[in-house]
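Before a colleague's protein record goes any further, I have to sign it off. I want your independent view on whether this chain really folds as the C-alpha cells say. The record follows directly below this note.
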Amino acid sequence: MIPQKLTKEIKIMQKGGRKLAGFMEILLAKAKPGVSLKEIDCLADELMAKSGGKPSFKMVRGYHWATCLNVNQGVVHGVPSDYRLKKGDLLSIDLGLFYQGFHTDMARTIRIGKESRDKKFLEAGRKALAKATRVVRPGNRVGHISRVIEKEIKKAGFKPVRVLTGHGVGKKLHEAPAIPGYLRGRIANTEKLKPGMTLAIEVIYTQGKSEVVVKDDDWTIETVDGQLAGLFENTIAVTKQGPLVLTKT
C-alpha cells in the first residue's frame, strides 16, 4: 500500500483522534452497574486535561460537561447526571477533544452487562458506520454516505433519526457539510467529497419512531415514544487513497 501523504492539519487531528479513542476505551470500561453518569464525565474531564487538550463540548456555549451521555431512550446531547447505571441499560458515550487547534469527535453505544439482548440493534449501528466509512472517497458525495446509513439501518428493521446529522469537523466542532443519516433528494445535488475534508460521520437511529423530543434541561434529546436509541460516530479524513479513520487507537 502506498503511504498516505497527510496534511499538517490531518496529522494533528490524527494525533488528537488517537488520544480521544483511547479515552473512549477507558470510559466504556468504566461504565458498569452502579457507576453514575457524573463519574464517567469527571473521568473524561481528567483524561482530557492530562492530555494537553480540552473537552470540545465545554466549548459549546451553555454546555458545561465534557461528555454527552445518553441512556436507553436518550438520543444525543444527554447531560451527565447523578443517575447510576443499571444492568441492562443502553448507554451512548459521545466525546470530543480539542487538541492543538483542532477538534475530533466520536461516539459509541453499549449495553451495560450482556449485549445479547440488543445485539441486533447495536450491530446495525456498527455495521452502518463501517459501511458508510468505505464510501468516504474523493469523487463520491455526502449523499453516498447518507444512502448507505439509511439502507443499513432500515434493512435491520430500525429507523434513522431525520432531524439530526453528522457534520464537518476541524477548527470548529461543527462545520459544513451536514451529513444526514438518510438520503435527501438526489445524490448529485449533495456536496462532493474532496481530499483534505474531515468529517464526523454519525449513525443516529431508533428502535421505534424516528421523531425526537427535547427534555426540560434544554439539551437532552430523547425518542418521542420512549424506544431505545443508538449512536455510533467517528471522525474520518478524506484522502486520495480513501477513508482514514482518525478516531482509532
Summary: The two ends are 20 Å apart (CA to CA). The mean pLDDT is 96.
